[in-house]
Structures are given as C-alpha cells and as structure tokens.
Amino acid sequence: MASKNIALVTGANKGIGYEIVKALLGSDKAYHVYLGSRSLERGQEAVKTLQIECPKSASSVEAIQLDVTSDSSIKAAFETVKASTGHIDTLINNAGITKDLEFVRGQVSLRKNFIGAYDVNVAGSNVVTYMFLPLLLKSSDPRLIFVSGLGTFGQCAKGDIPLPPKLERGWPKKLEFDTVGYRCTKAALNMLMLDYHWKLQVDGVKVWSILPGFLLTDLGGDKEWVRAQGAAHPSAGGQFVKRVVEGERDADTGKLIANGSVYPF
C-alpha cells in the first residue's frame, strides 16, 4: 500500500462521492480509497458494488464510518486511518446536503433549513479538514479538495439564480424550488477553501474548490425533478475530480474551478 495514493472521500456511499471513488478505482494509477459514509453499512454496500463494477482495478477501497456532523465520529475515523496507513495524500470534502426543497414544501423550518445545511456543508468540512491535516501533511504531494456548487457571487449578482419566470408581489413568494440555503453554504465553503489555501502554502498543500457541474444526485430529495431539469450523470463530476487529483489543474490552486474553466468567486 506504500506506493498507492491514499485518498479519503467524505459522503461517498452515493452520488458524486461514489462516482469520485469509482473514477479513482478506474484510474491507471493505484489508490487506496477510504470511502467515508455516515452509515457504515451503506458504505460497505457501496464498496461491494464498486468491487463488482471495477473488478480489474489496481486500487483498493474500504468503507469508513464518518459522520461529518459528529466530532466523535470524525475523531474515530482519524484514529482508524492513522493506525492503518499513517497518512493520506488526498482529502476530498464532498459530503453535502440541502434542505431548501424541504423548507419550500413546509417540511422543515427556515432555521433548520439553514443550520442543517451549514452543519454538514461548512462546519463538517472544516472539522474534517482540521482533524485530518496532520495526516495530510505527511504526504509528499498533499491535495485538499472542497466540492462546491451554486455559491458564486458573480453569477448571483447578474441574476443567475433559479427563480420562476415571473414572481408575484407580496411575501412569502410562491416557489416550487429554491437553493438559497445551499448557495449560502457553498459561498462559505469557498471562503473556507481560501483560508486553508493561504494557511497551507508554506506546507506545500494544493487546495481547490471544485464545481462538479449540474449533476443527477439525491441532493435535496427530489431526484426526478432534478432529472427533468437536464442534470448530467454524476460520473462526469467524478471524472473531473479524478483529473484534478492527478494533476490536471495544478496551475489553478486556490481557485474555484470547473471543467475547463476558472470561476470568479
């Protein structure tokens, strides 16, 4: 395992995280991937499926219980990795949620919408990174990735926000879909990335925020609605992240990157 790139991916039992792991397993380069999952059972099921889908992989994968909202879970995962491989080369903060649709449908309060998303998308990513950095700094080529999303101020300032074609006067607005909580967390995540980028330059850590694209996942709990909006298969995001891990965007560290471009914050 000494010659393998040791990678940890959070929120990896399904969606983009799963496809990131699958892309790494399909690489010509050898990896050992820790597949982080809030539920160990679901993580183990994902590993079994990956082993069937990638039978000739030179890489290996193992499930690790990792709930990014639980400090004790993060600490336990850290101790497991420390005792097993002693270091990681790549940390991919992928775990993320949105409760915007639940709020629009009256299933959660506005406060729980925001607090729930910030706990996973921002606080969770920060605590995982802070905890695992001692292991990442042992790598000869440490890489730190934050999977971002609809959180760019430039786009929103131009009105590039998913809204109905016509809004009526009055409050609250009648919306079938909203992304404001999710967008706010991803804007905060980009700030977190920049903070780590500048703090870790002296340590040689390459840091990015990545826009994987509009992909078909369970995020928000309405996969069929997302499919109807033209979302792409999440494997596209997985392949892009793999290329970043393997050096394709080394000239763009400290930036918000998409496939073939750099986005303004």
TrEMBL record:
<dbReference type="InterPro" id="IPR051468">
    <property type="entry name" value="Fungal_SecMetab_SDRs"/>
</dbReference>
<dbReference type="InterPro" id="IPR036291">
    <property type="entry name" value="NAD(P)-bd_dom_sf"/>
</dbReference>
<protein>
    <submittedName>
        <fullName>Uncharacterized protein</fullName>
    </submittedName>
</protein>
<dbReference type="GO" id="GO:0019748">
    <property type="term" value="P:secondary metabolic process"/>
</dbReference>
<dbReference type="GO" id="GO:0016491">
    <property type="term" value="F:oxidoreductase activity"/>
</dbReference>
<dbReference type="Pfam" id="PF00106">
    <property type="entry name" value="adh_short"/>
</dbReference>
<comment type="similarity">
    <text>Belongs to the short-chain dehydrogenases/reductases (SDR) family.</text>
</comment>
<dbReference type="InterPro" id="IPR002347">
    <property type="entry name" value="SDR_fam"/>
</dbReference>
<dbReference type="GO" id="GO:0005737">
    <property type="term" value="C:cytoplasm"/>
</dbReference>
